[in-house]
Amino acid sequence: MTADVDSSRETTLSLATLDRAAARPGVTGPTMDPRELTVGLVHLGLGAFHRAHQAVFTEDAATATGQTRWGILGVTGRSAAVADQLAPQDGLYSVLTRSPRQRSLRIMGSLRAVAFPGRDTERVVDALAAPGTAVVSTTITEKGYPRTGTGGLDCRQAGVGVDIDALRQELLGQHVEGAAATALGLLARGLGRRFRLDGGPLTVVPCDNLPSNGRLTRTLLTDFAEQAGGGRFQDWLQESVAFAGTMVDRIVPATAEADRRETQKILGMADHGLVVAEPFGQWVIEDNFAGARPAWEQAGATVTRDVEPFEVAKLRMLNATHSLLAYLGALRGFATIAEAVSDPALLDAARRLQREDVIPTLEAPEGMDLPTYGESILDRFANPALGHTTVQVAMDGSEKLPIRVLGTVADRLAAGAVPEAAALAVAAWMVFVHRGRDVDGRDLALNDPLGVTLRATAAGPDAGLSARMFALAGVFPRAVAEHDGFRDAVGRHVQDLLHEVR
Ligand code: CS2
User: Fold this and answer.
1) Residue where one domain finishes, among candidates 254, 289, 324
2) pTM of whole model > 0.90?
């Protein structure tokens, strides 16, 4: 891509070029005129996943009802990159949906404004407090919820103390200097201002792969309020802010340069905010709202009283299998999940994890046949058009494994069974951390908030690797780490894998 392509408004997607892009063959959307939308939803965590998932459901819901009040203000995380890509495009971007049988490109109009907290904290806090904002959703990843082992706010985590102080000042009506340090701290500050300025009821909709994400987020914000000496603010939080837990599902790989080039040909111009996704998309939302919300059920979402069975089934069936394939696949030199799942031995391990270990721990959500669900997940993983990389899914393993795999392990051990395929998943993670390279000697990046500790713990002789890793108290609950049968199973798999990737 040349510099003049980058800099020219004429050759990049934006409101000024939208009509031309939308008229191209093979391009659909936006389904509503973006100029008519006002912001009613603030989203924290403007990554690819939000743009390919909640933003699509929200635009579809608004289109189905003709409501214009559900434009989105998207707030980035620590990096300004996405805001810098999307602001010059007036928030417009496209979703490239891919499978072997299908390729489609849809321009999205629901994202009406973007902000980077590093420079726009005040603007975001104002939007969180504005009466027109009725919903705040989040995709801030597992590590964005600073929680202790028992699920309360972890005040020792970086930035939490600073954000509690900022909330205290906000509640006193004092000017707060500087950006919020954490995403939930930013939300807490916004809620503080909303309380002070009487902005009205609000619903928080967490969209991360965490069990009971609604309840967890409510606990963390209540703890924020209590630590800041909340008083009446705490009462208001109880009465006026609702938390709707959700299960979210759509495979959204990182956008590759080749995707951007392909899209440029279709659009006839560049789209620096492009996201790529599979055709499948699912959203199950707890019916617990304090005020207005988009009619997401008219866009194919399920709004239900009991979201938990869906969340647990998805985490244990899909995400656990994903992680298993990511670590085993990466070690064997497979760049993508699709390559990994087409290896017969890995496919077999994934099936065993689902059928032998996970399904016995689950209560099937209404209308779901678990073995069929499992197979449909493996079919989706096999989509070769996505290019979803094993190292992308492998990141943040110390956060993901406890949520995806260790709950299954604990339940099976409590039932008197040793879950062998789950032990293999844990072993593959340990060897992935220890080896740091695949069978062909290529480096495997370790991207994990505990990365330094993990590498230091894993370092040393092959013998004893699993014992050293089991001592990581922040990762392994005691009931799991101290179970002899499970330790033996993991130890055996670790030795086999070390031998395989030698
Ligand atoms: C994946 C998920 O990166 C990962 O860890 O397991 O992002 C997965 O693709 C989504 O949860 C699918 O809904």
Assistant:
1) 289
2) yes
pLDDT, one tens digit per residue, over 373-412 is 999 999 999 999 999 999 999 999 999 999 999 999 999 9
- Eight-class DSSP state of 88: T
Quote the domain boundaries for residue 34.
18-289
Count up the domains in the chain and report the number: 2
Contact 357, 408 (CB under 8 A): yes
CA dist., res. 201 & res. 370, Å (int) = 38
Say how far apart CA 267 and CA 14 lie, in whole Å.
12
Binding site membership of 390 for ligand 1 (Cβ less than 6 Å): no
Residue 322 belongs to domain with CATH number: 1.10.1040.10
Choose among 84, 74, 10: nearest CA to 37. Answer: 74
Task: Determine, yes or no, domain membership for 172.
Answer: yes
**Is the distance from the beta carbon of residue 401 to the nearest atom of ligand 1 less than 6 Å?**
no
The closest residue, in CA terms, to atom 5 on ligand 1 is 393
The verdict on 229 and 339 lying in the same domain is: no
Residue with tokens 């998932």: 53
As a whole number of angstroms, the distance between CA 355 and CA 357 comes to 6
Mark whether 314 and 265 lie in a shared domain.
Answer: no
Return the structure tokens found at 297: 């059920």
Domain boundary among 289, 319, 338: 289
In the predicted structure, residue 87 carries a pLDDT above the cut 50: yes
Same domain as 439, residue 378: yes
Residue 11 lies inside a defined structural domain of this protein: no
Alpha helices in 278-419 (DSSP H): 308-313, 320-331, 337-341, 344-352, 370-381, 390-394, 397-401, 407-414
277 has which bridge partners? 97
Q: Tell me the C-alpha distance between 17 and 269, whole Å.
A: 9
- Dihedral sign of CA atoms 308, 310, 314, 316 in order: positive
Does the Cβ of 322 fall within 6 Å of ligand 1? yes
Is the CB of 170 within 6 Å of ligand 1?
A: no
pLDDT of residue 2: 44
173/408 Cα distance (integer angstroms): 47
Do 182 and 43 lie in one domain? The reply is yes
Residue located nearest, by CA, to atom 3 of ligand 1:
393
Closest C-alpha to 277, from 308, 303, 245, 253: 253
